[in-house]
Amino acid sequence: MADTYTIVLDQRNAQAQQLGNSNFGVISGIITITSYATAKVAYAEIAGAFKVVTRVVTDGVSSAGFHTRWDPVTGTIRAYVSANGAVDTQASVGSGLGAIGFIAIGQLG
Predict the structure, then answer these.
(1) Among 79, 88, 105, 107, which is most buried by a count of CB atoms within 10 Å?
(2) In whole angstroms, how far apart are CA 34 and each of 1, 2, 5, 68?
(3) Residue 99: CATH number of its domain
(4) From CA 85, how far away is CA 77, in angstroms rounded?
(5) What are the tens digits of pLDDT across the range 52-71?
């Protein structure tokens, strides 16, 4: 089972915007995850915008208080919780993570 999510891009169209005369582009927006899963399937809206995804930077904390990071292996967001400053543990399956801002940079086709 994969994450249940919605992505709303900041750009008017669903294409990465080229950075100057380079072969790189950028997209940005908000990912709202309503049901988190530990089994991951890459987010097509991000992976499909680039030939190669170089870097994705996410908000450090989601609107629901989960710590977030981009997982380049799966092409998805991983979420974590910490109890009283203890080591972070992965969020529970089915958790609603709320909204997470992101900026993605990659090589264009």
Answers:
(1) 79
(2) 13, 11, 6, 14
(3) 2.60.40
(4) 21
(5) 999 999 999 999 999 999 99
